[in-house]
TrEMBL record:
The keyword Transmembrane applies. GO terms for cellular component: glycosylphosphatidylinositol-N-acetylglucosaminyltransferase (GPI-GnT) complex. It comes from Bucorvus abyssinicus (Northern ground-hornbill). This is PIGH acetylglucosaminyltransferase. It comes from the Eukaryota. The keyword Amino-acid biosynthesis does not apply. The gene is Pigh. Residues 88-157 form the Phosphatidylinositol N-acetylglucosaminyltransferase subunit H conserved domain. InterPro entries: PIG-H, PIGH-H_dom. Signal peptide: none annotated.
Amino acid sequence: MEERRYRSASGVPIALRCLQHSASCRELAVRCPRLQLRSLSAVTSAVWLAAYGLFVLSENSMVLSAAIFFSLIGLIIYLHFVKIDQESLLVIGSLGIQVTSSYASGKESTTFIEMGRVKDVVINEAIHMQKVIYYLCILLQDPGDPQGVSEVVPLFQSSKPRLDCLIEVYKSCQEILEQTKTAPQSN
């Protein structure tokens, strides 16, 4: 197991873990920083202080109850649907590619793409707010047109690794895809 430190497009430290299970099976996981208790406490305190200020002005206890209720519901929604701790890519040459997102609450979201549908894995670029950002994506082959692309599946959308990290993941994916393309020809 090999873990390397990188930065995201926004400058946040991330870690790339590479596991090679076999010659044609590799797992690449990008870990985002965990939720910091300091930032969570700051946001919660700000909401509750604002609610207390409104309570003092209005003398209505429902303001405090609503602030507590909405901050707890907001936290649960954030942890279960928004905050992703890890995104992983499992590339199995003979089967396909599995993309998994692990949320802070423990929930996992998994998508599997059969290798027969994968046309290529590429690094693409986009312009976002006067800035060029790079992202890794899977090009899915169009069933009607073997030269065409039917869909583009972006990877690592939450962690947004910088180009140096994406190049390492790209090279690893291309090694396995190249093995898959040459394997039928050699038999």
